[in-house]
Design brief:
Elements lengths: L1 H11 L5 E5 L5 H9 L4 E4 L2 H7 L8 E4 L8 H4 L5 E5 L2 H13 L4 E7 L12 H12 L12 E8 L7 H22 L8 E3 L6 H6 L4 E4 L1 H4 L9
Parallel strand pairs: 1-2, 1-8, 2-3, 3-4, 4-5, 5-6, 6-7
Bound molecules: pyridoxal-5'-phosphate.
Length: 231
Amino acid sequence: MISENLTNIQANIPENVKLIAVSKTKPIEDLQEAYETGQRDFGENKVQELIEKYPQLPNDIRWHFIGHLQTNKVKFLAPFVHLIHGVDSLKLLQEIDKEAKKNNRVVDCLLEFFIAEETTKFGLDLQEAEEILSSVTAGRAGHAPPLPNVRICGVMGMATFTNDTEQIRREFRNLHQIFQRLKERYFANEPHFCEISMGMSDDFLIAIEEGTTMIRVGSTIFGRRGVLQTP
Ligand SMILES: *Cc1c(COP(=O)(O)O)cnc(C)c1O
């Protein structure tokens, strides 16, 4: 089933859109099956769960952290994480920089934006993001950039949980516009700032129409998660 689901999704997404298989709450065997189908990008939202799974699976997997990350847990991810999607404060960015340096790595991150009409979701607004970016991208002439061990590669967001597809579309369009504005202002000459992580099982087709580059899909690949599991 997992293999079939993956093949179906891959057939429906353009080549420039990366599929991240969100494997949270699912057992190792399910991830193994996805891996054997050729899937290499996996997303998890709990640090504990991710560090338990990571050593049990092949090391060419690219692990995406898609949850809300607490600063005191950054050290567990810094040695191996491929991309941290949910960065929503300067403090977190500084901590990632510090832990990345200890591991001799540059860790890629996305800034998370609050685009939904719900108060339960995390993320920055444009003004907060610009405050962060003004302080971290303004490398003064002759000085090293302030956070040399993090690389901001784009933006991430989650649409409102609703059946109103036009609302979802507006929210994704808003995130795309935020991406473009930040690109022009802070990353005009930096090709690595190129990612828009938006779209999940129920809305990834809309996200593709609105210019996503990374979709994070869980239940459509692995089946529904248990009702007691959150989110
Ligand atoms: C769980 C989760 C997903 C995947 O959700 P599905 O609806 O199962 O595709 C995507 N993004 C984030 C941040 C998640 O927590």
